[in-house]
Amino acid sequence: MVNNENNHKKHKMIQYANGKSLEEANGTVEIPKGKGFWKTLFAYSGPGALVAVGYMDPGNWSTSITGGQNFQYLLMSVILLSSLIAMLLQYMAAKLGIVSQMDLAQAIRARTSKALGIVLWILTELAIMATDIAEVIGAAIALYLLFDIPLIIAVFITVFDVLLLLLLTKVGFRKIEAIVVCLIFVILFVFVYQVALSNPDWGGVFKGLIPTSETFAKHPVVHDMSPLNGALGIIGATVMPHNLYLHSAISQTRKFDRNNEDDIANAVRFTAWDSNIQLGLAFVVNSLLLIMGVAVFKSGAVEDPSFFGLYQALSDTSVMSNGLLAAAARTGILSTLFAVALLASGQNSTITGTLTGQVIMEGFIHLRMPLWARRLITRLLSVIPVLICVALTSGKSTIEEHEALNNLMNNSQVFLAFALPFSMLPLVIMTGSKVEMGERFKNRLWINILGWISVISLTYLNMIGLPQNLEPFFPADKVGLAHTVAYILIVLIIALLIWTLVELHLGNKRFAAEQAKKHNK
Asked: Membrane spanning segments where (predicted)?
């Protein structure tokens, strides 16, 4: 009778889940004992790559290249600052998972009410779907450019990446990490090759790494973009909330003695090394994208920053900055490599987006469904706005169709501004708490200070950018209405943040009381 009940549970599409984070992969990767630094680091390497994917996904590409086209190397410092903040936040997320043995969603849910858990789950799901829209568009465009597949058909083909996911779930977590690393190196190779041919001004590159007052200035405005707009675009495309949930879960895939503080400290140390190395690679990729905008093309030559426009520009000898690039562009190698990198980026994001979806669903509302089913549902939901966009522009010119898709991809990132504070604030609070992390593993004072500065700065920048981000959703003569709606949303976000912080504070006090009671016994 018991076996029949267990079999019935296994075959249910949606199940109750309140166990370990990513239970099927949790603690499955063996760590060698007594080995040297490099062998141990290799064993811990992998989760950082899955996280780094989110920092070099299709949403980053146009912002970095356009920033280079419009302002030369001025915004290099923004990419550097974003990467350093990412390293800090991802370190905290991984440490939370390793020390507390809960992912960020589980930790928030354990300290808050069911009602707030559902609200935060919906908000985070919308953010994941927003990033999924960018992946759908990027992958569909790559298929169109590489194989001349009509866009609508290409969009439907992206749904079948669920079959890839089914295959990956059978090969083991370590092999998934290896596949992601290989795809990252494909992307890296493409842009290193193109930038190497361009012979950029390396003095200007390194000078751009130092922020100045001009970096966040509202003037000059070039092609409807100011340095401030460009900086906000890069920041918005770089730090994404789903990466924090993901890292807090996949940092638990390594097998070590979780009751031994020294082993835990070792895991935190090597996980931080892995994360920082991989995010360093993401910084290089994003820097190469901006350098492409400056050095590969003649200044101001790229009028269409969409993927279509960039692909065409890379095969147009007249816009190349030197003869070597023009010769390569004539062969079609530059544009083809760009489309290959775009496809690789989309597939990488597919893997990590699905894992994150499972983490937040189990963590916030304690429900689980098979990875392939979850992927199919979220991908179909993400495909709908893309299909509507393609259908509405099917009778218009090719340029208008391309612009509409590019605008949809950029506008889909608006939800990230909503969701970001609700992952960052709890993360800094919980990792800075002795109650949650213990005396040994709570954030040091300087990490706490940098964490709060990062959280407040990113939240502020996302909020001040919200009115401008909402403008494309309204007619040209209704800009005032767009700003009014944005300010109402900002007030609602602040109210929801206060609700979250109050519940986290009360939950922390409750947890402290429970610990004290256990200790007294």
From this structure: 71-94, 115-145, 151-169, 176-196, 228-246, 279-297, 324-344, 376-394, 414-433, 445-464, 484-502
